[in-house]
Design brief:
35% helix, binds manganese (II) ion, 21% strand, binds ligand BES, single chain, alpha+beta
């Protein structure tokens, strides 16, 4: 192990250069204009994997390509096989004006590397690749077979990867999946995440008059779709922060007393959290702590709200339509299909006859819950401890990684979630960063992990 540790230490500055090259591709999956950048990024990644010594190929899909990269297999190998999943697509960088430096030109300040995709997820998946590089380049035997699956559509729902898993079940058959695409509370609290929230996304449009109308000539005689939408949305949540959709909480698994106690032990307090978020006061479902609310309770968020004139100055109109983008975060044992049905019924009932409701359900994902006491989980906890030098914590996370449920369904494999992002890494926000110590320790954790999982 010492050889590997030395190799990682001696090569950090080159690794940071390589991460910067990886990040310079503006691989924004939500925006069609970046299709070519995603392809170029995928090709760079395949080349990089080959340079490390992996057998890598680019797999075209109906959307962005998937990269498969394998450690060379020994004949009649009885070694365990693990998949390492990551994504090379990133969230849109907008609003650009809030970035202190251009989002796709990596900037290092102190021990942070600022850029879109730095922590979510390029830095985290590159950390695993660097660990494998260290095994190969030091001539150390890797005690497991590994297959990297790095996709380009995670931030838009992983639609094509799900099909790909189905079509390549035999090749991808594995003992477990390893993903670093979540967080940890602090560098002194390395974490194994054992639950993720699911999601159900919607677009609600209320259609009013057949065109924008003069608000003086017609105002008062016709419904304003923007006002109707505000009133409709306001009915979806009560003053205690409870979602009012009938049946919404029916399947919610309550937190056990043991879990509540564990969550309460995590670092941080509400005052610091409030300041960090820049809000005058925290808000959430009554009867739960902030940590419980954002990890183990379901929510409704309005992600976007559009109607009428948004330009400079005033324009006196009644808009022809109003639209909201909504997401519900779901917890075990809620099902997105059931929630879609319940929301559709409730909104249809609430919608006034003065406007026409159009409701489209977008992407959805089941929540995820896995045992933190399995043999693999214990190995992961030892690897975290060895790399970070602190006792790891067990976490539930509020975000979603839709594909983990497909790994379970298609490959019958559980996922180890070993996140390297810090709470102030600004994932999905302006000035996203990745901590270079987390990058280095993540590589070390990955190197230890294969030893621990391989059984020696
Ligand atoms: N890396 C995140 C997921 C995440 C972040 C999980 C922090 C736990 C803690 C991932 O890239 C992501 O943002 N996923 C989306 C999925 C959605 C588009 C279906 C999310 O959670 O919003
Ligand atoms: Mn991510």
């Amino acid at each position: 192990m010492q050889k590997i540790i030395n190799y990682l230490r001696e090569n950090q500055s080159r690794f940071v250069e390589e991460l910067s090259d990886y990040i310079r591709f503006p691989s924004v999956s939500a925006q069609a204009e970046h299709r070519g950048d995603l392809k170029a990024c995928a090709e760079w990644l395949v080349q990089h994997c080959r340079k490390i010594g992996l057998q890598a190929r680019l797999c075209p899909t109906a959307g962005n390509p998937i990269i498969i990269a394998k450690t060379p297999r020994q004949k009649s190998s009885k070694r365990p096989h693990y998949l390492v999943y990551g994504h090379y697509d990133v969230q849109p960088a907008e609003p650009f004006e809030l970035w202190k430096s251009p989002p796709f030109e990596p900037r290092i300040a102190g021990r942070s590397l600022f850029a879109r995709g730095a922590c979510d997820n390029k830095g985290q998946n590159l950390a695993h690749l660097k660990a494998v590089e260290a095994y190969f380049k030091t001539g150390s035997e890797l005690p497991c077979d590994l297959t990297f699956v790095i996709e380009g559509e995670e931030e838009v729902g992983s639609k094509n990867l799900a099909t790909f898993l189905k079509q390549n079940r035999a090749e991808l058959h594995c003992d477990a999946v390893v993903i670093s695409d979540t967080g940890m509370p602090s560098p002194k609290h390395p974490a194994l995440t054992y639950s993720l929230r699911g999601i159900a996304a919607f677009e609600v449009t209320l259609h009013g008059p057949s065109r924008d109308l003069h608000s003086g000539i017609f105002g008062g005689s016709v419904e304003n779709p923007a006002m109707a939408l505000c009133q409709l949305l306001a009915k979806l949540r009560d003053k205690n922060g409870r979602i009012t959709v009938p049946g919404f909480y029916d399947d919610v698994a309550p937190l056990s007393a043991y879990e509540k106690k564990q969550l309460a032990r995590l670092p941080g307090n509400d005052k610091a959290y409030r300041k960090f978020l820049g809000v005058p006061q925290l808000f959430g479902e009554r009867g739960f702590t902030s940590t419980e609310r954002r990890t183990a309770r379901p929510t409704l968020e309005i992600n976007g709200l559009t109607s009428g004139y948004q330009g400079e100055g005033s324009k006196t109109i009644i808009p022809a339509w109003a639209r909201a983008k909504l997401t519900f975060r779901l917890v075990p044992n809620q099902s997105p299909a059931k929630i879609v049905k319940a929301v559709r019924q409730y909104l249809s009932r609430l919608c006034p006859p003065t406007v026409r409701l159009e409701l489209t359900a977008g992407h959805g994902a089941e929540p995820y819950l896995v045992s933190p006491t399995s043999r693999e989980a214990q190995a992961a906890l030892r690897a975290l401890k060895a790399a970070f030098g602190y006792e790891p914590v067990l976490l539930r996370e509020g975000g979603s990684i839709p594909i983990v449920n497909d790994f379970k369904k298609q490959l019958r494999a559980d996922t180890l979630l070993l996140g390297l992002a810090l709470p102030d890494d600004n994932a999905h926000s302006p000035n996203e960063k990745f901590d270079l110590d987390c990058f280095a320790k993540g590589q070390l954790m990955s190197a230890h992990l294969w030893r621990e999982l391989g059984g020696n």
